Amino acid sequence: VKDNYQKRYAVYDGLMRERMMDEQMILREMEFAIEQKQFSIYLQPIYSVVKKCDTSAEALVRWVHPKEGMISPARFIPLFERNGFIVRLDHYVWEEVCRLLAEERDKLGRVVPVSVNVSRLDFYDENLLEFFMGLMKKYDLEPWMIKLEVTESAYTDNPQQIMTMMRRFQDAGFKFLMDDFGSGYSSLSMLRNLPVNILKIDMKFVQEIVTSFRAAKIMEHMVQLAHDIHMEVVIEGVETKEQVEFLQEIGCDEIQGYYFSKPMPKDEYIERLAGSPVV
Ligand code: C2E
Ligand code: CA
Ligand code: CA
Ligand code: CA
């Protein structure tokens, strides 16, 4: 018995150590990595059901590590949200997105809007709007070209302050998406007050629509509700034809997921845009 326990403990210990090393590596190298431009943006196109083509994309950060290869955001975003480094990374990502939009404008003569993720911590910066306006000026862009994705849980932090800030953004012409809608608490009551334009329903719903009658019905009614209060709906995490057909039937506006395309590097994304119809 004792032997077995020791063996099991050794495995556990090994895993723990690996995880800690991993965390330490990430924390040790993050500053250097941002300076060395090891972070890059990937773009995942978003398909419009009405227009039957891609009408926007989401920017998702990747860490291309010289030794470790591609590190998924699941491994570093939660750490950066704990130590605050996410604020620096987000600023970097937003600027990279603006560079991309300027490149589209110069190469293709048109711009397809991109949504960026905005972390809860980003709202502590009183000059957040000024930062975005600075980017608009520097790259000669307009606010409709960038949409801001904020997860519903972020609003619970400091709703009054965030709401005031969001209104200022909206007055300037930016749009907000509520990300991962339905994954947390008090989702419905938040819809009453928050100046959000687009609802992005959490992928757990779409992944259950085939197996769960309830998930399907809830999805259907969420889309209806959003439309009733003049919001658009994006469904993410869509992987199968059955899901797409269901979503078209219930009238959702935009679809994002592996079924249409995975997140791709910037150059590939621009090439894809170049070969797609103008809408
Ligand atoms: P998210 O904002 O909910 O992004 C959607 C995630 O779902 C992405 O994971 C995307 O690659 C993945 N996804 C897209 N389509 C499908 C699909 O059909 N099936 C499945 N199973 N997954 C799909 P990713 O890129 O690993 O990002 C994970 C999370 O990391 C994001 O979740 C977001 O919360 C965070 N994140 C990524 N980039 C940034 C960033 O620049 N700033 C901040 N603050 N957070 C970021
Ligand atoms: Ca997002
Ligand atoms: Ca999401
Ligand atoms: Ca998420």
Automatic annotation (TrEMBL):
Domain of life of the source: Bacteria
Signal peptide: none
Domain EAL residue range list: 23-277
Protein known as: Diguanylate cyclase (GGDEF) domain-containing protein
Organism: Schwartzia succinivorans DSM 10502
